[in-house]
Prior knowledge:
Number of strands: 6
Helix content: 25-40%
Number of domains: 1
Amino acid sequence: MADRMISVGVNGYGVIGKRVADALRVQPDMRLVGIGDAMSDYRIKAAVARGIPVYASVGGKAREMEAAGVPIAGTLDDLLAAVDVMVDCTPKGIGARNLEHYRQARVKAVYQGGEQHGLTGHSFVAQANYQSALNDAA
Length: 138
């Protein structure tokens, strides 16, 4: 593996997303750039308390989030411009809508939720198919 840190973003900071973000923060070869979300509840405020930059993942939500006391580092586009890979932890169906956005930004995405296999054509399980997923452009 290269000596370079891999810059990672997490889109969706719910049950799965907060665990993914916590795991990323302790990886020696990865850097959590920030999280994307559209909420301004206690979960997002917990991310702020941990020093994790928050990006508004849905247009128009930034002002609402800021009004609720959540400092916004930018938009989902800004987060995508700063990462090598996005871990999408959004609810089922939202991740599928995000795929084209990630592709346009030329950012690889890993889905950690309820999306169907057909979305990318590859279901990843590290113990079984790491090599086939490594260079998959989906």
